[in-house]
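Hi support team,

I submitted a single chain yesterday and got back a structure, but I'm not sure I'm reading the C-alpha cell output correctly. Could someone confirm the output below corresponds to the sequence I sent? I've pasted both exactly as they appear in my results page.

Thanks,
R.
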Amino acid sequence: MATQTPAPATGLRETKKHETRQLISDHATRLFIAQGFEQTTIAEIAAAARVAKKTVTNYFPRKEDLALDHQEEFAASLAHTVAARRPGESVLAALRRAFADAVAAQDPVAGFSGEQFARMVADSPTLTACLRGLHDQREHHLAQALADVTGTEPDDITVQTAAGLLGTLHRVLFHRIQALTLAGSPNDQIARIVAIDATQAFDLLEPALSDYATA
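Hi R., thanks for writing in. Yes, this is the structure output for that exact sequence:
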C-alpha cells in the first residue's frame, strides 16, 4: 500500500514557528511600552520570551521590526488599491473608498494603534524615523503602480506629482489619527472626526485627479 508524505509534521513546524514569532513580538511590545523602545535590549526581549538572542534576530532582523508590524502591508497598501480598483473607478476614487473602509474598520495600518503604542513610537527617534521611511516607501510603490496602470515611466512628472499628492494626503491623515490618539480620543471618536477630515482632503484633489487613471 502506498504511503503518503507526512504533511501534518510540516504544518506543526509552521505553527510552532508562528507561535514563537508571536510570543517574541508580544513580549517585545510589552517591554517597549513599559520602558521605551530605545531603552529595551534584544537580550531583555529574549529573556522575557525564554528564547536565545539568536532566535529573536532570526525572526526579526532589525529591532524596529519587533515594534512596527505590518510594514510590508503598509508600504504596499496604496499601490495595491490602485491595482485592484474597480472598472470605471479612478485612482482617486479607489483610494478614497479604501481609506473610508480603513477608518470604518479602525485599521492599525491606517493609524489606529492605540494610545500606548502611539506614545511609544512618538517617544522613539528610531521608530519615528522608521515610520517616515515607510511613508516614503509607500509613495514610491504608489508611483510605480501609477506608472504601470498609465503605461508611463515612474519618473514621469505626472506620475510623480500624482503620487506625491496622494502620498502626502495619506501621510497627513495618518498623522491626524496619531495626534488624536495621543490626545486620548477614543477610536470611535477619531473615526468620526477623520471621516470628515478625509472628505475635505480628498475633495481638494478632485479638480486635478478625478479622472486620472480610470480603470
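A quick pointer for reading it: The chain has ten helices and no strands. Let us know if anything else looks off.

Best,
Support desk
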